[in-house]
TrEMBL record:
InterPro entries: F-box-like_dom_sf (IPR036047), LRR_dom_sf (IPR032675). This is F-box domain-containing protein. SUPFAM superfamilies: F-box domain (SSF81383), RNI-like (SSF52047). CDD domains: F-box_SF.
Amino acid sequence: MLLFPDGDTTDNKHDRLGVLPDELLLQVLEALGRVSKRDLCNTSRLNKRYHRLSDAVLYKSVQFQTPELHLTFSESLSRRPRRGSAINEVTLVYPSSELSQLALNAPVHNSAYRASSFDTLSQTISIMSNLEKLDIAVPDVLLSGIGALFNGPFDLACLKWCSLFYQCANDEYWDLRENIHIFAHPTLETLIIRRARFDDKGFNHLERPHTTALKTLHLIECDISDDGLSDVLELPEALEEFVMTQTDEPTPELEETGDNFADYVIALKSQAPSLKTFTIDSPTLSCRRPLRMREFAELKTLRMNWDYQLFGESTGKPRLQSVGLPPQLEVLEFFNDLGTDEEVTDLLLYAIETKNIIARSWKRMVAREDDCYVPKAIKNACKEVGLQLDIIGAYESDSD
């Protein structure tokens, strides 16, 4: 017989895995869980040791697709709070229709919780002391309750990845100020925000936090002021990746977003020493002057919609200055056609011809060829200086 430290016994002939240390046995149970959750549940009933290790796998990632599941699980977790420490990933994804079916003053089936206590959802998540990944996509009625999680970041002391999206009536933008303290979280490394609105007030002086560990920030279809963005971007100690996207025809109309591409570059100046990837996919942004990006000493990848967002639009006056490309730039990508502005095309041509002076590390340029063709002069210049030109949408022979 094999005696376990917790007092359970089992037949050694039938439990050959029992002699493995916890670290190896946990890997075996993780592999079993990927094949069959049901078999893993059955394994957890064998003895206390298997139950403890199986729990660590079963509760590692939890997904709530209805509010009823969330509230019922909250009750279960209150009885066994130890399970909360086993949870590493949580996904809350359910539409407004699911929430509307839940009467605000009625009990939840199989649960002692009442739906009017939606703020307790944040309390449930705060019990998950080892939570590393939090994915939120729920109706905006839960905006304040979940936002309270970030007012005390030590409740989620291990959080590293977070995605926030609140569904609003008429597809409106939700107010990021309700969750603004997510930017103050000390351990968070990746933050993805979808369809939020943020004005130019930023942080109030009395609530400004210390520097944070944020490395990656994605703003997907957000209506955000460049001044507000500048304010929150003073917090990361060393941001490495920034992505901001918007549609061709934003709906509803943007109220906080400015119209000048360069203003958002200026908003990122506080992260210039560390930023490695910069992407703004917002075709409605214009640019009146060439960008000045020599301060972005570590930037290697630069992506934008139009060539004139880099060089500035035509002014009708002589142009004596060129763009200030990042000194370590390796990849420059344009999401839309080149050659729509003759003056800007001349500036791009000059930048390519002098790349060994203004951007010695520049190795690759990516362009599109849909309605317009990449100007032949640009193609020839790239060949002459050894700059790889990848044309998306072109025939292979044209690309060569």
